[in-house]
């Protein structure tokens, strides 16, 4: 099955990694509903932003062990693990991109031609989803600590033509400064535990897996001040 329209689920949530094995958060069930995947959803995990570490891949597979989820992964270190990445990704219901360095992720994707493959997947109805770097990458711009301190990047894939900030509650002051200066375009932001759902380039819903998590629209006014609007958020559990 595929989503009815190009769909992106951009979040600051995912697995509960404090549990052994990891416990999938409710965002995964929500992602499977978006694509009408039924009892055996196909999900491909992309851990390249974190270096395709063996422990991370193991955590992913163990999290869904014994469930009906059909799991696979795409790794680029030290070489691609599947013979045809395009064919593999297009066969999925959901692609889940994990956290890590969005700068490194984008560089490697472009080197391997995956930027265009992901656009094709998006247009074909594969739900593109992810946490942190896996949320930022789909946008035109955003904030990242890929280079150490928090900074702005402006070379995202641009499927969503606005900026994105994850873990916003810890970064609000810095983000407001970036937006006020014009360095960061207006865009969306999520606290840890929140996510945004886009059909095409339109936001259709904000969701969260905890009561304290918020989602926001942050924009620069003509006078250079910053306006922050808190969005209505639906609790997933």
What's this model, at a glance?
With 237 residues, the chain is α/β, with parallel strands linked by helices. The protein has helices at 26-34, 54-63, 85-90, 102-111, 114-124, 133-136, 172-181; strands at 7-11, 15-16, 23-24, 42-46, 70-74, 94-97, 127-131, 139-144, 151-153, 160-165, 187-190, 194-199, 202-208, 215-220, 226-230, 233-235. 25% of the residues lie in helices and 31% in strands.
Helical segment count: 7
What best-fitting shape do the alpha-carbon axes yield? globular
Mean pLDDT: 96
The fraction of residues in strands falls at 25-35%
Helix content class: 25-40%
Please report the total strand number as a whole number: 16
Ends: how far apart?
25 Å
User: Spatial order of the strands in the main sheet?
Assistant: 5-4-6-7-1-12-13-16
Largest β-sheet summary: 8 strands, mixed
N-to-C SSE string, H for helix and E for strand: EEEHEHEHEHHEHEEEHEEEEEE
- Radius of gyration from the alpha-carbon trace, in angstroms: 17 Å
Spans of at least 5 consecutive residues with low confidence: none
Alpha-beta content class: alpha/beta
Description:
The chain has 237 residues and is an alpha/beta fold. Helix content is 25%, strand content 31%. The chain has helices at residues 26-34, 54-63, 85-90, 102-111, 114-124, 133-136, 172-181, and strands at residues 7-11, 15-16, 23-24, 42-46, 70-74, 94-97, 127-131, 139-144, 151-153, 160-165, 187-190, 194-199, 202-208, 215-220, 226-230, 233-235. A hairpin with a 6-residue loop joins β8 (139-144) and β9. It is globular and about 55 Å long. The chain starts with 6 loop residues before the first strand and ends with a strand. The mean pLDDT is 96.
